[in-house]
Design a protein that fits this description.
Number of domains: 2
Structural class: alpha/beta
Strand content: 15-25%
Number of helices: 12
CATH architecture of the largest domain: 3-Layer(aba) Sandwich
Largest sheet: 9 strands, mixed
CATH class of the largest domain: Alpha Beta
Bound molecules: ligand BES, zinc ion
CATH superfamily of the largest domain: Zn peptidases
Helix content: 25-40%
CATH topology of the largest domain: Aminopeptidase
Distance between the termini: 30 Å
Length: 473
């Protein structure tokens, strides 16, 4: 999609998108734009409403924003218009940017418009969205220049669209090798280095905890390492994302919700998407990211409940439940990253526990960290762009939950309480007491229901959050 500023609507024919702040239902002054009057009885800018008027060879789409509008709502409003009004979009579309809009609002608006082109029907015959046609150029009218903002918002949306696809595509397509290839291709295009360890190399260097999880799968595990090293970097951030391409539960096979478990690589996908976006935006920050990718399957070769396995960090692990596999691959991802790259700050993103969904539902991710400044910063970023976080404790009173009698640590407390916290305590054990580490449990927010599809689908939670955090370091 190309973008072009036009000075006015003289000689324009096509669809005009006109955002309107709420007046009142009883207003006697009609909303007016481009010679079109709309009376408050039919439309007065109420949030989540819109009104179409055909006049002067143009389709005017008046879009209600409410009295004030936050980033996420604005993005959703424009995603809805792009997704659900596509029949009114011909070759020409112009967007009116209200004079009061700041660059964040313009960013949310254009990001939403591009996200509205997403179609979950990857395997269905369908016509491309009009915005995706070659040569399509979106016009905009604004008092000031917003070119830089709009270019940035389209990059954000592009990374999010790619992340949607990674998560929504099925597990027979998105295998560990698919993720590794995706990383390599993105690295070539956007300028970061990618190294992938397969089974042999992972065995040689001792990623035993990671390898245990993939033992029962026909898909070879891939330990994906990405390095973005701009010349002017002052800080170094490390990222780790859970890349379980499908989680059957292993021998502790899932009895509920297995069909949704293609989403179990959403943390990895968020890290891949964020990596692409950070490189695309050329932020002056060094980023090293790891996505341990494998499939948790059922087979004679699968790891067993009660197995004791080794890990890269040198700690032995008693397996209580093979369905608590995410923490096993993250343990090696975190330990490998911290030992070999020593980043200033480490963030991990993972669809780690059902427990976090029970605690926080679908509105925010669970945040775990011992670093209050980091917690603040991450929450500020989340609030600014509408990917919220809520902090849960990492107190030492929870340590007994992961103490094993046979090994250094066990992968599950065996108790039906505080599951997200004991999982976070397990990860903490592999961070070598790093003083600036945060774990984001995104099981409730990465994949869910929305107005945009009938089945659960990806949200790309984390891509923008991590990028915004790094932008504001
Ligand atoms: N992948 C799941 C967590 C999950 C749940 C992701 C819902 C997305 C939506 C994870 O590997 C898992 O199975 N966790 C178990 C752990 C338990 C066996 C200790 C859980 O939370 O039930
Ligand atoms: Zn599991
Ligand atoms: Zn899992």
């Amino acid at each position: 999609m190309q973008i072009k500023k036009i000075p006015n609507l003289d000689n324009f024919t096509g669809t005009i998108l006109i955002p309107v702040f709420e007046t009142t239902a009883k207003s006697i002054v009609p909303i007016e734009y481009h010679g079109v009057s709309v009376y408050s009885q039919v439309f007065y800018g109420k949030k989540d409403t819109h009104y179409l008027v055909e006049k002067y060879d143009c389709t005017h789409v008046f879009i209600g924003l409410g009295k004030e509008v936050d980033y996420k709502s604005l993005k959703t409003i424009f995603r809805r218009i792009a997704a659900k009004q596509k029949d009114v979009f011909g070759k020409n579309v112009a967007v009116v940017i209200p004079d009061s809009f700041n660059s964040n609002q313009v960013e949310a608006m254009f990001c939403g418009l591009l996200l509205g082109t997403y179609n979950l029907g990857h395997y269905k015959k369908a016509e491309a969205h009009p915005f995706l046609n070659a040569g399509f150029e979106m016009k905009y009218i604004a008092k000031t220049e917003f070119e830089e903002t709009i270019t940035k918002s389209l990059k954000i949306a592009k990374a999010q669209l790619e992340t949607f696809a990674l998560v929504d595509l099925p597990p027979n397509k998105v295998t560990p090798k698919y993720l590794a290839n995706w990383a390599s291709e993105s690295g070539k295009k956007y300028g970061f280095d990618v190294t992938v360890f397969g089974k042999d190399k992972s065995t040689e260097i001792g990623l035993h905890s990671f390898l245990s999880v993939g033992k029962g799968s026909a898909q070879e595990p891939q330990f994906i390492i990405m390095e973005y090293k701009p010349a002017n970097a002052k800080k170094h951030i490390g990222l780790v994302g859970k890349g379980i391409t499908f989680d059957t539960g292993g021998l502790n096979i899932k009895t509920a919700g297995m069909v949704q478990m293609k989403c179990d690589m959403a943390g990895g996908a968020a890290v891949l998407g964020a990596m692409q976006l950070i490189a695309d935006l050329q932020f002056p920050v060094q980023v090293t990211a790891i996505v341990p990718a494998c499939e948790n399957s059922v087979d004679a070769l699968s790891f067993l409940p009660s197995d004791v396995i080794q890990s890269y960090a040198g700690h032995s692990i008693e397996i209580i439940d093979t369905d608590a596999e995410g923490r096993l691959i993250l343990a090696d991802g975190l330990a490998y990253l911290i030992k070999n790259y020593k980043p200033d700050t480490v963030l991990d993103l993972a669809t780690l526990t059902g427990s976090v969904v029970g605690t926080l539902g679908y509105e925010c991710a669970g945040l775990f960290t011992n670093n209050e400044a980091l917690s603040q910063k991450l929450q500020e970023s989340g609030n600014a762009i509408g990917e919220r976080l809520w902090q849960l404790p990492l107190w030492d009173v929870y340590t007994p939950d992961i103490e094993s009698e046979i090994a250094d640590v066990k992968n599950y407390s065996g108790k039906p309480v505080a599951g997200a916290i004991s999982a976070a305590k397990f990860l903490e054990f592999f961070t070598d007491k790093h003083t600036s580490w945060a774990h984001l449990d995104i099981a409730g927010v990465a994949f869910g229901d929305s107005e945009f599809a009938k089945t659960k689908h990806a949200t790309a939670y984390g891509v923008h959050l991590v990028t915004n955090y790094i932008e504001n370091l």
